[in-house]
Write a structure and sequence with these properties.
Ribosomal Protein S5, domain 2, 60% helix, single chain, 4-stranded mixed β-sheet
């Protein structure tokens, strides 16, 4: 089982230069890959997302890429020779106009837009991918390691809390069979207090007690809870992403405890139901971190 939070960093060097990739993951119901890189590398963002989604199925995954180009591939400078000649001609004309020689210096050429500019031919995405791909793989390995380590801690915590739920279920299952007998005693006490003496074997009394026993029977709910608990443990040891399945199981477990609370009509059972639902809410919070 993996957590949805993690961090990884990788770097690799190719002919174009050195690529550094950092990946940070946080919780999110769906998978969302956000790639932060320059416009020159926009054409390979699809490859990056595909590589990430092959390893990670849930969470918000932010991928930051930095490419430090080698000196041989550093951007070149372009010189607009016609513009430079035009500046020279302009200074000659000024000199002729005012009757004295004025020569342009280096700052005049640098201040004039367009004379000297960076070559914006861009980075070759295919050449960049040769450095980015291994760096991305290295970062993903670290991400999976950190997610697996945190996932192991989450699984241990969930097992402990699941045991608490089972304890509450066991107490409820032990208390439930006593409810019809308790109801029988209460019923006869009320009849006696009302001045009505009925035979214990009176058909009306037996029917009333039988109906009550049927209404408060929670054997189906406890059986389903046992099934949900077993499945929950199976998901904790599964190598496949289990976050959505665990979240669904939490909803089903909550529904069973709700039904037990409404059917049992008993203060002690109600206390165990409340305690179980409180623990279940903690489980649901933790499950939100599971991939």
């Amino acid at each position: 089982m993996h957590s949805m939070t993690g961090f990884g960093r990788g770097s690799a060097t190719a002919e174009i230069g050195t690529a550094t990739v950092e990946i940070a993951c946080v919780n999110r119901k769906q998978a969302e890959v956000v790639v932060q890189t320059g416009r020159d590398l926009a054409t390979i963002e699809g490859r990056i997302r595909k590589a990430v989604l092959e390893k990670v199925s849930r969470g918000r995954i932010q991928v930051s890429i930095q490419l430090d180009q080698a000196s041989s591939s550093a951007p070149a400078l372009d010189v607009d020779e016609l513009m430079a000649e035009a500046i020279e001609v302009a200074f000659t004309r000024i000199s002729q106009r005012i009757g004295r020689s004025i020569q342009p210096n280096a700052s005049d050429f640098l201040r004039t837009p367009g004379v000297i500019s960076f070559n914006e031919s861009g980075i070759d995405p295919e050449a960049a991918w040769l450095a980015i791909e291994p760096a991305l793989e290295a970062a993903l390995i670290q991400v999976l390691e950190t997610r697996a380590a945190e996932g192991s801690d989450l699984a241990e915590d969930l097992r402990s809390r699941l045991e608490t739920l089972e304890q509450h279920k066991t107490l409820i299952a032990e208390l439930a069979p006593k409810r019809p007998e308790h109801y029988r005693e209460v019923l006869f006490k009320r009849l006696r207090d009302a001045g009505l003496e009925l035979d214990l074997n009176d058909e009306r009394v037996v029917r009333e007690i039988g109906l009550f026993a049927d209404r408060c029977d929670i054997s189906e709910e406890t059986t389903r809870l046992d099934s949900h608990f077993r499945r929950f443990r199976e998901y904790l040891t599964s190598s496949d992403p289990a976050g959505r399945s665990l979240d669904f199981l939490c909803q089903e477990i909550h529904r069973e405890f709700n039904t037990i609370g409404s059917k049992a009509s008993d203060a002690e059972i109600a206390q165990n139901v409340v305690a179980a639902k409180t623990e279940l809410e903690k489980i649901r919070e933790q499950v939100q971190n599971v991939e």
